[in-house]
Structures
1.
Amino acid sequence: MGPEILRDVSFHLPERSFQFLSGPSGAGKTTLLRLLFMSLKPTRGLITIFGKDRSAITRTELPLLRRNIGVVFQDFRLLDHLTTYENVALPLRVRGREESTYRSDVIELLKWVGLGERMHVLPPILSGGEKQRAAIARALIEQPRILLADEPTGNVDPQLARRLLRLLIELNRLGTAVLIATHDLGLMDQVDARRMVLSGGRLEIYD
Amino acid sequence: MTETKRLLKNLGTRISSGARGAVSRKQMPIVPPDNVAGRAMVLVIAIMTFLSCLTLGAVTLVRDTAATWQTQIAREATIQIKPEEGLDMASALAQARDIAASYPGVVDATVVDAQATARLLEPWLGTGLDIESLPVPRLVIVTIDPLSRPDFAAMRSQLQETVANATLDDHRTWVDRLVAMARTTVTIGMSALALMLSATALTVIFATRGAMAGNGHIIEVLHFVGAEAPFIASQFRRHFLLAGMKGAAAGGIGAILVFVGFYWWSSRNMATPEADQATALFGNFAIGPSGYIGVGAIVVVIAVLTAATTHVTVLSYLKNVDSTHPDSM
Ligand SMILES: Nc1ncnc2c1ncn2[C@@H]1O[C@H](COP(=O)(O)OP(=O)(O)OP(=O)(O)O)[C@@H](O)[C@H]1O
Ligand SMILES: [Mg+2]
């Protein structure tokens, strides 16, 4: 077993809250998000998600809980054989929704993030920033209760980053708790929000 | 208004009513078809279906033929009277016939007359012989109602008491042997069929596991967007059901072609010695309607078996992935 990446970390994400998670590369931001997303189990310690003890969550409950969590992965995790449109619509398809009930939503959202022209293109020929926007659109298409975004603006220019940040802020106003992991100080300065800083395996919170 | 529309409206977008630029082309399957259930698997399923259908065809052929023989034999019994010094053959035959005819369940009792007996012996003894001068056993053919068979035990003892040298053969031994043979053949055939279906299921298990390992990244993303295990299984199942149907249909059609070909061959060569042998054994080599229904049933069973096997395999695979690598779930 390797070294402990996170130690003595204790915090609470309230409903409808908005916060940044920062820290140097390798500090454990992605690891913390994976713990929250339940794609990683803590070796020790207690995690409670939507009032449920993580260790008591069964395999059948997990997918249903995850439907309340939107995730933007640092490495996007788009499916290469599905178009941008199909990738963004995937969470809805998985919920068994009819395509006609969500088609216009997906298209409007794609247009808003500037992918209106890239809708029927496969991810391998998208630019890094385009993939990132598709990943963001997929994470919030279902208006989750909480959005975990890992470097959501790492691959776009500052202007587009501001636009995407506005999207996340508006999502938060409509009731989604948002946690953005980033080391982009410029981005954090645009919003007056709680900052959680990871370093040396410990977490410090600046309200 | 949907949540997404409200979000975008708050951001200052003018939302059009219909979906502008909407495309209603068919969505790509979530699990791409080309890296699943390859041609090799379709071929294996086709071969297995073909062999299963042939086995089933052979089994029905044997069973039907045995049943025909059985009823033919069961319709008849014979009384044999051996000649002896001082025995009045004609009256013994008449007596035996009358006794047999007096039993309920006997439709008819006929003495095989001298000419007919001579004809029966012709192949061995040649023509123009005087049957009366030879010590040849004589027969009474008893025709039986197969639905209400007479009391053979009583008939046998009465014959033995009244007519000297009379023996009754109700062909029971033959019928019993036939039934046993047919049953053994059917059992062997059915076991072979079960083995073939198991082999098919195993092939599908291997193919499914391969497909799942090759699509691990897709399964991971599906987990992340909240897909439940049965949904993931259904995505794989649809490909395997299609492959199973293709393979099974091809195999079934192949088997029917073979049946039709055999039928055509046997009816074309009706007079040749080979065909005579086959005909003597199997009737006219026709697979009856039950055989064709059986082929249809096997095709359906194999397609469904393929889909069901895939479903179960995916579910147990997902369960295993979860318990051995909790990190990757
Ligand atoms: N599955 C794992 N097993 C062991 N160590 C891991 C695993 N995943 C990550 N790590 C280690 O944990 C540390 C934290 O990684 P993490 O990805 O959380 O960093 P990060 O803060 O997201 O960095 P970045 O800003 O570069 O994305 C790193 O040293 C990494 O090598
Ligand atoms: Mg990271």
2.
Amino acid sequence: MLRDLRRALSRERVRYGAADRTLFAHDASVFEGGLSGPICFPESTAEVQDIMRIAMQHERSVVPRGAGTGLTGGAIPLGAPIVVAMTKMDTILEVDIANGVAWVEPGVVNLDLTRSLSELGFNFAPDPSSQQVCTIGGNVANNAGGPHCLAYGVTDAHVLAIEVVLSSGDVVTLGSVRGESLGLDLRGAFVGSEGTLGIATKIAVRLSKNPPAVRTLLLSFSSMRDAAQTVSDVVAAGIVPAAMEVMDREITNAVENYVGAGYPRDAAAVLLAEVEGLEGGVEIDSQRIVEVAQSNNAKSIHRAESEAERALLWKGRKTAFGAIAQIKPDYYLHDSVVPRSKLADVLESIYEIGARHDLMVMNVFHAGDGNLHPILLYDGRIAGELERVHAAGAEIVRACLAVGGVLSGEHGIGVEKQPYMEEQFSSDDLDHQERLRRSFDPMCRVNPGKVLPEGHSCADIQALRSIPTGVWG
Amino acid sequence: MTGPIDLLLDPEALNGCVQCGLCLPHCPTYRVTGEEALSPRGRIKLMREVQDHGAPVTKDVLRSFETCVQCRGCESACPSAVPFGHLIEQTRASLVREGISRSALMRIALKALEFPRLLRLGTAFLSIANRMKLIPKQLGLPARLPVRQPAIPSTGQDVFLFTGCVMDAWQRDVHAAGARVLEAAGFGVTPTNELVPCCGALHAHAGLSDDARRLAEKAIRGLSGDDRPILVDSAGCGASMKDFGRMLDTEEAKAFSERVFDIGEWLANHLDRLPEVAPLDLSVAIQDPCHLRHVQRVHETTRAALSPFVSTLIELDDDGLCCGAGGAFMVLEPAMAGSIRDRKCASIERSGADVIASANPGCSMHLADAGVKMMHPMELIDRAIAAARA
Amino acid sequence: MTRAELAPTDPVLHSFAAELGDRGLVSIAGRGTRWSAGGEIAPGVQILRAPTGIVEVSPAEMTVRVRAGTLVADLNDALAEVGQRSALPERGGTVGGAIAVGEDHLDVLGRGRVRDSVLQVRYVSAEGKIISAGGAVVKNVSGFNLPKLITGSLGTLGAIAEVVLRTNPKPSMSQWLVSCDADPQLSFNTLYRPSCVLWDGSRTWVHLEGHAVDVAAEFDGLRHVGKFEPADSPPELPAHRWALTPRDAASMTSVEGGDFVASIGVGTLWADRPQAATPIDAALNVVHQRAKSLFDPTGRLNPGRAV
Ligand SMILES: Cc1cc2nc3c(=O)[nH]c(=O)nc-3n(C[C@H](O)[C@H](O)[C@H](O)COP(=O)(O)OP(=O)(O)OC[C@H]3O[C@@H](n4cnc5c(N)ncnc54)[C@H](O)[C@@H]3O)c2cc1C
Ligand code: SF4
Ligand code: SF4
């Protein structure tokens, strides 16, 4: 197989050394136990087709991979599949202003795309906190969100068409840049499928106009409850800000150590709210947000005074996960979404659960969407800590589901959250999800063992995971 | 392939990485290859595998470590403050100790840096040989090396101007310009010349830590008994001398490091002493040397010092990504250095600048070789002052 | 939580599931406004109606839970009372019908796509089971995106019983404008976020929504584009819907055999005759057919109709 792959690509672009296989067995999640087969770096759709066909001939599975910043192990290879690293397909193919789209290869980095569009007055709206590194292909696969998805919607709303190589090796284009596409929305089904339906090789993204006016408010509160209530009240008042992000005291301090953006270090919670649009409305809405915050006992209210200050505040918010190692070497992250009106209550239970398990919990989250990111900190070198993290995590997930929430708002299920799927969906529900998956990939050759839990995933997860991970194989 | 090796890395520093990947786009080798093994996160992971899990140092592992430009773009991008620069230097030092790094060979080459006269003589020879096209192109030597340049005269006792090794041999005109600018600001300049033959930066990067320490001690001795500021017009040398305190961990070394300033940093603090002259009618883009931006983190001062002297200052749009020079990197990894440079050149092209200002000789040579018009910020300031006087 | 609790408890849904059962050819009728979409229903098919009623309106969450047989008009009235609105088009039909067809509102630029507004779907499967897909919150990537597959599936994969939709605050001002001399594309480019820009070959309509100051500012910005005047409503739309690239829609000057109205920046065009059909790609058709046979192995749901 290696020989076939090398003939199809080139020697240098097919790796099988121990070093590469170790590296590609991981992503940004804490999951251990991946096992990588050969790693391919295709440079064209045709090469991806070749890889897919060779995999089929040799009855191997494949796993697409972008920048490897996924937080649930979506890109982690199970059972030694071929890893298809899309990072060398990173060309912006065409910016078509008249049709309001850009065609890009999947390895294009999110922020690079937005930057190159900005001269033309446009942007790609989804802005995950990892946008400086994650790829558009990864965004599509995970249906990534970001702070500014509150007003504009997540990746799904900004992807018009996707060229996909199916497990059969055939290329299809899902969706279209023509009008609204009626009929089965296979494009919509593909977005968020975590690389299990095929490999995206070309993506048409919608161009969004840059807003003429932006106001950024930094609000601080002496209790998390007040901050959460402010968020809920703002939306209830009929205002849809571009973004509303909350950080608690601990994470704010870690972030401030790194960026020095002027985040208040003593507040129990800070709320970063941004309003975008036309000058008049932006002024009215930001004023109303200030009033809502005041009525919820805001401790301080500050408006970013310059573009530089605004950029620094966002840099702080967006590097929050990375800053955690200042406090503890490892973290486990949840991604539940709860109804906004339940935010304050749920946050209280989360801190309580952490305390009960003697774990440090921090919260930094997309508050406007009710998308929580409870972070459980631990040190993997200390025996027993990870077990406590999992126990607390399960309780947190249940607390969120109990108020009508969901398991994941943007990071996906991958391998880390699979067991929780059964807490949210019935067996029949999961069975129908599997049918969707099989519609695209009947033999489950693309990214097997992900998303659906044992018994519903068409692959035998135990078998995939139990292969010994002889590190330098 | 080797047996288990202890890289002697600080476990806390190594564990500080949460594998988030936020550093990847700031790494030039990842940027041009898209390969995890050539990224900071990948390199740290491999260090862990070698140190904690006894993984052998295979050809691929060695390639991962040796292709690092040591620009430390990853370090200023890392929200968890992983000290990558020290990790990679220590890794290389351990590999040299085990005799499995080509750095051992470099030791011989770098020896010459300690003998300035020899270096100048060698340079003249190389220059002629190069012009006669006797030197293979992939060696990455700058196209035009000087044959002979006049020495920098001593003009007073206010500040030291660090002259160093390669730079003194290859770009002495930059020192001359820096000295004139300092004089225009009323500072009498003592060139360090033979007092400090070499700062040892290249040795430290190559993992030749013993040599690096020896040279650091020599430098400290050479300029001891004195507390005059030591001004440096090469970002790499400045960064290395500012690190003596940490490396040697002695009071004397710390005191020495405190005295070291980048020349732009110094002038930015003494702007009022510089003459007010008409700015040069040029649009200048600043190329931040990595060791100024990511290590010394004083790159803003270049802007402050330069802006009164040129009509337009432009920022490049690549977040200070490395140009690929990396000291000896451009000679050892010419292909990679070339692709990294291509990215930088594309950014320079987009900027539309007339001239690129860089405060590091390595970057200047590397980019000039690709046809970019390069000047040291001191040369620009010097020229503006000279134009006003003429 | 145990698995038994995960099944919806609403008895109305259960009786709908029981009615649909697990055998026999069935079709769900809405109000028949788009009854012929996807082809005529085969003879001898039992026609059912989906349950009706608005279960819960949550303006603070910007969501509504509504049963599929409810009229879109009734839904919109209920939402208006709490200052919200939906993305569903007001063509007189039911919520379930609108979602099964998947057509967007004329103001899609302001309201968002129908497909993006369906947060959760509960449908009855060909086996007569109630399936829950998606979640009742505004952001969700837990598992495969079945709501996307069901929206626009013309009832061929499952019978929609209940949905949770994302709603939006009703803007404080709404203003239609019309011009006889404005270039439609230039009008679109000049505006920051119009809700709709239409073009019929000679006139350009613009729909502005939002804060009064913003609407006034956008109106003012149009002065350089053409002479716009307030209009009461958008033009009449011809019956057939075409999908074009936005560029082609904007450069359309006439459609053979009648009038047309094109939506600028979107690419939908309404004409008096149907658009020439484009054949579906063979590899894509394989996926379509496989989906149909996996979700409805015996072909009992909406026989005769194809997506
Ligand atoms: C610091 C940090 C902050 C983050 N913040 C956010 C945030 O705000 N919002 C958010 O949504 N996520 C966030 N994430 C998670 C992550 O960055 C996103 O999920 C991102 O979209 C993953 O992109 P990637 O290129 O790294 O993909 P990878 O991690 O490489 O892969 C992710 C999934 O996509 C699949 N995939 C990749 N490329 C393709 C392709 N071409 N075709 C098919 N499938 C493919 C993979 O198989 C895998 O299942 C964050 C992560 C970090 C480390
Ligand atoms: S070095 Fe820092 S930025 Fe890079 S992956 Fe590790 S923690 Fe993240
Ligand atoms: S020092 Fe530079 S080349 Fe080395 S890993 Fe860091 S960013 Fe990459």
